[in-house]
Amino acid sequence: MQEKGFQIRYRSLQNNGFGKNFEKVISDACDYYRKKGIAEIAKIDEPFRVIQLYKGGKFKGQFTANANPDFEGTLKGGRSICFEAKYTTTDRLKQDVVSDKQWEVLDLKHKLGGFVGVCGGIQNKYYFIPWEVWINMKSLYGRKYVKQEDIGEYEVPYRHGIMFLDYKTNGK
Fold first, then answer.
1. Domain locations along the chain
2. Do 163 and 145 contact (CB within 8 A), yes or no?
3. Sign for the pseudo-dihedral over CA of 19, 40, 119, 109
4. Check: CATH 3.40.50.2000 for 2-156?
5. Which of 34, 71, 135, 161 is least surrounded by Cβ atoms within 10 Å, i.e. has the fewest?
């Protein structure tokens, strides 16, 4: 029983690490796009408040609200962009990994004309899946998850980070 608990905690820490690294390489691409004058996109931190301060810059904190999507900004020309970042080591990216709050915000921004989607990593490949595709996953693919073979047209390269605006094919 104790072994199983350890495995669950270890897997959770491992997944958290993969997710943080995934967001970091997306941020690297944001920096590249900013320097090239293509877009201004920033990582949005989760809302929290500090409960207690400790020495060495450490603190105890508490989340104050459900998280919004991970990245927001503006593309050259003025169109807004908003997307959630999701990574998995499995062979599928599940629709329900986007929280209700994130779904609500992404859907509203999509309806207002923003460039909206999910930047997804499945094992060693990366994708920017448009919101229209994400929300219609069940009708498009017959299930509420996607595999690499489903979304090849939305694959994006890894160069200066995960180049989420640079589809390898005609995904845009």
1. 2-156
2. no
3. positive
4. no
5. 34
Q: In this predicted structure, what is the pLDDT of residue 29?
A: 96
Average pLDDT over residues 14-34: 88
pTM: 0.82
Phi, psi of 68 (to 5 degrees): -80, 175
Instruction: Return the beta strands (E) in the chain as ranges.
Output: 39-43, 48-53, 59-63, 71-75, 80-88, 92-94, 115-122, 125-130, 145-147, 155-156
The pLDDT, as a whole number, for residue 6 is: 66
Tokens 């491992």 correspond to: 14
β partners of residue 121 = 87, 126
State phi, psi for 114 to the nearest 5 degrees: -75, 160
Q: What is the DSSP letter of 37?
A: T
Q: Among residues 94, 98, 41, 100, which one has the least CA distance to residue 65? A: 100
Average pLDDT, the chain: 87
pLDDT per residue over 54-89, tens digit each?
788 775 655 545 678 999 999 999 999 999 999 998
Q: In Å, what is the CA distance from 27 to each residue of 8, 36, 73?
A: 29, 14, 12
